[in-house]
Fold each of these.
Amino acid sequence: MLDIILKHRSIRRYKSEDIDDEILNTILSAGTRASTTGNMQVYSMVVTRDEDIKKQLWECHFKQDMVLKAPVHITFCADFNRFNKWCLQRQAIPGYDNYLSFFTAAIDALLVSQNVCLAAEEKGLGICYLGTATYNARRIIDILRLPSGVVPVAAVVLGYPDEEPGLTDRLPLEGVVHYDRYDDYTKEDIDRIYADKEALDQTRELLEINKKDTLAQIFTDNRYKREDNIHFSREFLDVIKEQGFMNNE
Amino acid sequence: MLDIILKHRSIRRYKSEDIDDEILNTILSAGTRASTTGNMQVYSMVVTRDEDIKKQLWECHFKQDMVLKAPVHITFCADFNRFNKWCLQRQAIPGYDNYLSFFTAAIDALLVSQNVCLAAEEKGLGICYLGTATYNARRIIDILRLPSGVVPVAAVVLGYPDEEPGLTDRLPLEGVVHYDRYDDYTKEDIDRIYADKEALDQTRELLEINKKDTLAQIFTDNRYKREDNIHFSREFLDVIKEQGFMNNE
C-alpha cells in the first residue's frame, strides 16, 4: 500500500491496450469503500470509453492528448440526484439543494476518486487527474447528460503507462504540516521551504523557456492567471447554482 | 493496498496509546504524494495532539467522544496562504483570491487526506472522518489560528482501534457507476439499488428507535435536515468569503 502511494506519478502517455472489465470493476469497487458522509454515498462515477464521447471530453480538457490515448476516462461527480429520488419515493422531503450539500457530495466524490486511483496503480495502471473538470463543468454536464443535483468535480484518465517518469518534487514535510495550531510562515520559512524546488534543473529550464525571473511568475503570469481563475470561478459557481445547489435561503 | 482499501471501516473507539512520531511522519509523507493541481500543493495539514486544543475542536465536532479519545486530530485545509506569500516574495502577483482557487485547493487537501487515512490504516491505525469540519469552519479557524487564504475542509481522528466493527453496507456498484454517459435512474432502479440497504436488520432497528416509516425519513427529518443544511451553507460560504476566496469580479 505505502509503496503504491509513495511511487505515484501522473502518467500522460498510454499504451492502446484496453482495461479488462474485471480489473475495472475491482478498481471501481475499491472506490465505493471510501468514507462518505453519513454513508449517504452521494457521488457517481461516469466511466467513458466511447471514442466519440471521449473526443468531446478531450475538448473540455483543453485537448490534452492523454484524454484520447488513455482507454478509460472517469468523471467523479457530486451526486444528490439519486439520493433525492430515493427520498421522494420514500415519503421523505429532501433538503439537499444547498451549498453545504454540494460540498458534502464533492468530498464524497473526491475521496472515492483517490481510492480508485490507488487501486488502479496497484493493478499496474497509470492515472492522471485532469484539473480541468471544474473549469468546463457545464460542457461536461451537457456531454455526459448529468441531471440536476449532479456536478463533476474531478476527472481521471486510466490506462497502461507508456512512459516511466520520475517522481515529481514535493515541498518538504515541514512546509505543509503544522503542529497543534497553524504556525504562519515567516519570510525565511518561505525561502527555505521553496529553496529545493527553485534549485531544480527543471526550474531553471522553465525560467529560460518562459523568459521569467522567478518560478512563481510562471504560475501567476502563464499557468494559473487571475483573469482565467475569475472567469472559471464565475462559471463554476453558476454551474453549482444551475444544478440546484444554491438554495441557501 | 487493495486489502487495506477494502477492509476500511471508520473507527470510533480508540486506545489511549499514542502514535509514534516516526509512524506519524510516514503517514503524513504519504499524504504529500497525492496528485495536486499543477504541483502547487495548496493545502496544509494541522496535526493536533494538545489536549486543550483538542477539547476545543471536540466542541466544534458536536462533542463526538472520539475527538477526545483519539491521540491525534488532523485538520486538512485548502491553503493558498503559503503559495501567495511565496509569489509576493518572488515578484509575482497572485490571483488566487477567488472561488476556483478555493475549490482547487480543497481538492488538493481532500486527496491528501485520503492518502493519509490509507497509510494510517496500513500502519494498523484506525481513522474516522469528521464531516463536521465544514459545519463549524469559522470556529476551527479561530482555534487553529488559520490565516486568510486557509479554510478547513476535512478533519480526521487517528489512533489505535479499540473496537472491530464490521464493514459498513454500500450500494451495489451499478448504483453508483454509469457507463459512457449518465443513465438517469428510473423508479425501479431506485427501488432495486436501495433494496438491500432497506432490508438490513440495522435499518429495521433504526426505524423502530426513530419511529419513522422509511430510512430516507431518518436522513431528511433527523440526521441531515434542510434547516441545518441551509444554516451551515450560509456559514460556510461566509467563511470562504472571509478567508479571501470570493473575489470573483
Amino acid sequence: MAELIGNLLVAQSGGPTSVINASIAGVITEAGHHECIEEIYGGLNGILGILNEDLIDINDELSKSIEGLKNTPAAALGTCRYKIDFKNKPEKAAQEMDRLFEVFAAHNIRFFFYAGGNDSQDTVHKIHLEAIKRGYEMSVMGVPKTIDNDLPATDHCPGYGSAIKYNAVTVAEIGLDVGSMATDDGSCCIIEVMGRAAGWIAAGTVLAKQGNPANAPHIILLPEIPLDEAAFLARVKATVAEHKYCIVVCGEGVKNQAGEEIGADKARLDAFGHAVLSGAAEALATLVQGKLNLKTRTVKLGYAQRAAAHYASQTDVDEAFACGLAAVRAAIGGKSGLMPKIVRLNSALYRWEIGLEPLENIANVEHFIPREWISEDGFLPNAAFIEYASPLIEGQVQIPHKNGLPQYTVLVKSPVEKKLAPRA
Amino acid sequence: MAELIGNLLVAQSGGPTSVINASIAGVITEAGHHECIEEIYGGLNGILGILNEDLIDINDELSKSIEGLKNTPAAALGTCRYKIDFKNKPEKAAQEMDRLFEVFAAHNIRFFFYAGGNDSQDTVHKIHLEAIKRGYEMSVMGVPKTIDNDLPATDHCPGYGSAIKYNAVTVAEIGLDVGSMATDDGSCCIIEVMGRAAGWIAAGTVLAKQGNPANAPHIILLPEIPLDEAAFLARVKATVAEHKYCIVVCGEGVKNQAGEEIGADKARLDAFGHAVLSGAAEALATLVQGKLNLKTRTVKLGYAQRAAAHYASQTDVDEAFACGLAAVRAAIGGKSGLMPKIVRLNSALYRWEIGLEPLENIANVEHFIPREWISEDGFLPNAAFIEYASPLIEGQVQIPHKNGLPQYTVLVKSPVEKKLAPRA
C-alpha cells in the first residue's frame, strides 16, 4: 500500500469489558501523533451505527476525557452484537458491505479499527479482504477484547485480567464471610461467573486462594469438564466436613454428562411449562441443598464482573491501551488485516510485549484451557494455570472519585455531518 | 456500680458486614488504654462459642493485626445466628444463661461487648438484666452492626454505608455496560440486593444516579411497598422507550399485593413439585421477559455486598471503629445496658458524634424507610433520602495488597485455657 492519508474510524463491538475503552484511548492517543491521520471519528454502536452513518467527532472531546477512558467501564462509543451474516443471508450481507464502503468513502476513512472478540475479529477480517477486493485503500485492524479470554494467538485478552481480579476479590471476601459464619451445621455458597464455552473466568478465581488450600474457592466447575454429580457432591461433603463450609465457583455454561447446560435444565418448568433459565448456580444449589440437606446460597455476578472498573487490574489497563496504540502504529506503517496480540516474555518476573497476528488466524477460533492446567479430578486449576494467571491481576487502579463514587468519562459525542441518504 | 476491675470479653453475632471488625478493633484499641481492664478475650462464634468456653487471648495477636481488622471483612472472631430462646424454650434458655454466667465468672469477665443487629441487641439486653438480677458486677454493652440499617435510635448502622457504596458502584457500572449495549431492541437488567423486610439497601443504590435522572437505577423495588405488577411493567416499558434500556434494583424481600415474597413464588415448581426459591430478581425477569418480550438479565449480589471491604466507605469504617471505642469508654465510666449510636449533627456538611441508647429501646424494634422519603409512585427514593444517604458512602479505603489482592487480617486465635467442664 502507498502511504495512506485520510481519516480514522474506531468502533467497539460485542460485550463490553472494564478496559475496552482503554484500547480506544490507545488508538486515539497514538492517532493524534501522526499527520497522515486527519480526522478521528468514532462509530456509534459498532457496525450497526456505521451502517447508519452514525459517526462522532473525537476531536470535539476533551483531552481529559480521552485520559479518563482508560478507567471507564462499558463501551464509551456504544457497542452491538450485530453480525454481517454472509452464511445465512448472503444477499443482505453483500448490501451491508456495499453500504459500509459507501460510508468509508464518503468520510474518506483510510484507517479502520474495530475492538471486539471472536465474532468481531471475523467481521474485521471480512472488511479487510473486501477492501483489497474493491481496491479501496484502507488499513483495517482488529483490537482484541474479551473477558472470556478465548481468542487464539494472544497470550491472553485485554479485559480478562480485570474480570478475574474482581471475581477473585469477590470470592475471597465471600469466603471470609461464609467461613466466619460456619458452625457445625455447615453451609455452602455457589458463585456463578461468566463463560459459556470456555472456563477461563471461572478458573481465574483460583487466585482467591492466595496459595492457601484451605481458602475459597474449594471447587471450580468449568464448562470444559462435564459435571459428575456424584463426585461433585462427594467433594462438597468432604469440604464441609473439613472446613464447615464450602465455596463453589461455576462457569455459567457448566454442562451435564449429556452435554446440556445445567442452567437451562429442562426438568425445571415454570407455571406455564417453560424451562426455568435461572442459571447454573441455582441448579447446583437445588442439587446440593436437596441431596446433602446443606444450607446453600447463590451469588450471580452477571454484568458486574465485566464492568467493575473500580477494581480493574492496572496491568490489564496498560495492556489494553498498548494494544490500541500498537494497532495505530502498524497501520501507519502500511499494515492491514492484523490484530495486536500480547506476547509473554517472562512469567515469574512478568514482562510482555505487543506482537501482531493475521486476522485469518483469529476469526472464529476459540481457545480453551489446556487440560494439563486442570487437576486430574477436574475440580481446580493447578499450579501451571496459577503461574499463567497471577501476573494478570497485578496493580490497583486509582480512579478519581466524587461524592464517594468513581467519576467515569461520558463522551460528548458530537455527530459528524451525514453525507449519504439514510439506509433503505 | 463500683469501679470494675477484671477481664474483657468481646464477640460478634449475626451476618457479617464489611466493618464489623472495625468495631472490634475499636473495642480492643480503647481497652488497651485502661488499666482496670486486665485481659482482653474474644469469644469465638458469638454466644455459641462462649457457651462452649471457646475464648481466645487477644493479647497474643500482633498489633498490626488489630489495625488490619479495620479493613478486614467478615467476622474475624467468627459469628453465629444462635438465639437464647426464652420464649419457646424457657428451660433450655435458663440453663444457657446459667452457663454463660459460669463462663463469665470462671474468667472474671467484667466487661462484655457484643456486636450485632436487632436479635443480638436483644440477647445483650437480656444478659445485662440477668447480671443485675444475679448481682454479678459486669458492664454489658451492645455494639451496633447491620447492613440492613434497621436498628432504631441510631441515625444509621455501621455496615450500611459500605454496603450501599459497593452496591451503588455496581449499579452504576452495570448501568454503563447495559446502556452501551442498548440498541432499538431494548434490554432490561434486574439487580437483586439484600433486605428482607426493610428496603434501606435497595434504596441506597439511588446514589448511583449521581444526580442524573437518566442514569441507572431507573426503578427501585422496596419490600415496604407491595409490587403493583401493571404499574411496574408500564414503568419498565416507558424507561426502555426513553433510554433503550432499563436497570431495576429489587430488595430480596419484595412482596406481591397479597404480602407474599415474590422470590418464593409458589406458582413456580421444580421437577419434584417444590417451590423454586431462585429469588426476586429471577421472578421479576420471568415477568418482564414474558409480558414485555424484552431481553432481561439478572444479577444477584448476595453475600458479596456485605463482604466487599475492598470498596468499603471510609466514613463507615471510622464510625464503626468509633462505636467500639465509645462502648469501652462508657463501660469504663461505670455504665451498662447501652448501645453506642450515631448522632447526625449536620447533613450537608456531614458531621456526627457518638451517643448512647438504652438497649431496651433497641431490642427487637425494626426501623423502616419513612414513606415520605419515597416518591409518590413508590419506584424511587426522593431527595430527602438522598440527602440522608449521600454522606454515608464518602471516602475510599486504602488496603494493603499483595499479588494483586487485598491482604486481609487473619487472627492467630490462641485459645484461653478452659476452666469449666464441657457443657452437657
